[in-house]
Amino acid sequence: MRRSSPSTLTSTLTLLLLAIPVLALASPNFVRRWHWYIADVGRAAAQLPDGGYIISGGMQVTTGSYGVVLARTNDSGDTTSVRQILDVDPDGGLSCRLTGGGYAVLAQSGGRIFVRGFSPAGDSLWNYQSTWGGPVSAFIPTFDGGCLLAGRIPDTAYDMGAIKLAADGHEEWARWYDEPRMFDSWAHGAAQTRDSGYIFCGESNDYTSVNMRLARIRPNGDSAWTRLYHGPVGPMLSDVRETSDGGFLAVGYEFDTSSSRNALYMLRTNSTGDTLWTRHLAPPGAAAQAAAMCATRDGGYMIAGSIDWGDSARAWLVKTDADCDTTWTRVVGGPWRENAADIEQTTDGGYIIAGSSDLSGGRMMAIKTDSLGRIGIEEPSPPNPRPLRLSFTPNPCHGFVLVSSLLTAPSSLRLYDVTGYLVLVHRSSSIVPRSSSFRLDLRSMPAGVYLLKLDCDGGTATRKLVVE
Predict the structure, then answer these.
(1) Coil, strand or helix at 8
(2) Is 364:34 a contact under the CB 8 Å cutoff?
(3) Which residue range(s) make up the domain with 403?
(4) d(CA 437, CA 360)
(5) For 4-34, how does the pLDDT look when each residue is reduced to its tens digit (9 = 90+)?
(6) Entry pTM
């Protein structure tokens, strides 16, 4: 047997030691489910400064008894500590990061809003209890290290409302935003804007129909403007973000009358709330909805929610570019009925997702994916992939589509459905450097939205295709 020389061993060891920090840059991907009492529901997820995660949610302890829980994990998803607050009202469990790696959890206690702050080590720091009650749907960190909560506050006024808390838990301001044309209004999502103000999204009712609503809020809590939006059937906006041009993107769902199912809905406005466009994404044979959204470092957005086939449901991810065009979708989770409730991009470019599973009556769930929404070991990407020319006509198409591209090497053309499943592969093994066109037979494909992806010698191109 050949033996390595001492110098070779030293060189090898040095290379291994140098490689360790590089490998540590990518956090492990995982799926975790927790079950403590009768039922557990995941509501929020966040990455901590040490690379671990906070996953929070609500619990049903016994019949008529409820609690909230925070599970802290390391970067592999292994639980390192659990904090529970018992004997509170149902529907709590949202959490918010604080300055220095601490965090706060929100509950309802005695019909009033209750928040407890924790240190990075999990020790209790402070308690806050409002003078009002009301359901809270959004609990977000603010630029100054505090938190803002929004929902229908106070519950006696049936108005969209918010409370701003400082990092030490004291109340800075509380406001509610009356809409005279509506009898009931609710903020389901909230985000801080670049000017330190806020944008809320939600719904309003006028006794005859449900309307979507955006409210722009100044840093001190005063109202800047409010807008109502009509049109979709049964609409609901779940989350909202400011766009790079100062406008806003809100996501949720609407009832798709053509399929008699819910479809993911997107509303894009300018900086004053005027509608620029609306879109919906309706997976073939399934209902879909958006629950949460985060802006991504490439200028696009990641939307998380659920896709439901009736007999089963999964957490569903939809990635868009800066123009809000869909670039890929992914179904994640296990074989049970599951959904995503919150999502955040992680430092390695992947995503941490909080949600729920109906396994064992109800479990709190956390999913960590790579940058492409995969849970398995991340596959290496080609360095600096070259954009390829890819076009096709007609779009929408009926059965056949003419695909055109400039190819210089053997290639593969893959068609993915809106759930991210590969449904067709077309390969070319001997292509000379020239413009290539061919007809693609899609007569067997159900009507819907697809992604056509071309790979050739390290280059890639993806285009959206509609089959009618």
Answers:
(1) helix
(2) yes
(3) 390-467
(4) 53
(5) 444 433 333 333 333 333 334 578 999 999 9
(6) 0.76
